[in-house]
Amino acid sequence: MISPDIYGFIAAALTTVAFLPQVIKTWRTKSAEDVSIVMLLMFITGLLFWMIYALQTNALPVLIANIITFILNLTILILKLIYGKETI
User: Fold this and answer.
1) Cβ contact 69:47 at 8 Å
2) Domain ranges, residue 56
3) pTM of the prediction?
């Protein structure tokens, strides 16, 4: 029988890596016009709550995935603020 944590780590890897192409595209094109700052702020806030949840429930796959996803989305937000012209 496969441990539920294996499914958690697979889900974590897939959903986390999904943000990597956006980071690379924003970095290479030096453009973040198509990225919504409101979406990024809401998503990052949600990630913070997921991290709190994971810490309180000892859900290691959830914690690791959300820390990495937080870093990737924070990177996108920073690039948006540097390269973007959109306001809230």
Assistant:
1) yes
2) 4-83
3) 0.79
